[in-house]
Amino acid sequence: TLGFDVVGRRSFEYDSIDPVRSRRDYTYLPNGQLGTITGKTPTSAAYTTSVNYDHEGRPLTMTVQTGTAPAVSYEFYWDDQSRLISVRIDDNNPVASARLVWTWHYHYLGDQVVAATREKKTGTATPVVQRYWAEFDERGLIYNLVTNQGVKDFAARYDASGWRQVVTQAEVDDVHAVGY
């Protein structure tokens, strides 16, 4: 079930099987861009996702607050051609030795991402760097991410409309920022 505000923007949605836990509410910024999404996880923990944008309307920061856990923060970096070139994800763990920070750097050939480099830092340890090469389907959608060692860390299938189904994901937290 979907609900819309007076301007025609989605204001809420839910599944009739479980209208409480599946409900998501949307709020918008004065300029019409999505500001927040609130709802509940399958375990009934409340969550809020908030997005801020730069002067060109591209996402600049996003925070995801679930229950009482520290908010996970995302920072997005764009080049002059409006290509996403880097994403920094910080789990903001208050225990410094357990804090996880991922930084993804995207490498392009024209407008197509061809590779991504992930820096994964735990606490004060030296970051672990991994390069991924992208394999595309005929529509330019990434369906595999392969490491330098030839390991497929991410694989997906797409239906005719472009909806993605993840088939293989090495570690959920390691490739969630790919965004493709």
Give a description of the structure:
By secondary structure, the chain is mostly beta strands. The protein has one helix spanning 172-175; strands at 2-4, 10-13, 24-28, 34-40, 46-53, 59-66, 72-78, 84-90, 100-109, 112-122, 128-136, 142-147, 152-158, 164-169. It has a 14-stranded antiparallel beta sheet. Strand 3 (24-28) and strand 4 (34-40) form a beta hairpin. It is globular and about 50 Å long. Mean pLDDT is 89; it is low at 175-180.
Whole-angstrom Rg: 18 Å
Mean pLDDT: 89
What is the N-to-C succession of helices and strands?
EEEEEEEEEEEEEEH
| Beta-strand segment tally | 14
Name its key features.
disordered C terminus; mainly beta; globular; 14 strands; 180 residues; 14-stranded antiparallel sheet; single chain
Concise structural overview:
With 180 residues, this protein is mainly β.
Describe the SSE topology.
Elements: E1 2-4, E2 10-13, E3 24-28, E4 34-40, E5 46-53, E6 59-66, E7 72-78, E8 84-90, E9 100-109, E10 112-122, E11 128-136, E12 142-147, E13 152-158, E14 164-169, H1 172-175
Antiparallel strand pairs: 1-2, 2-3, 3-4, 4-5, 5-6, 6-7, 7-8, 8-9, 9-10, 10-11, 11-12, 12-13, 13-14
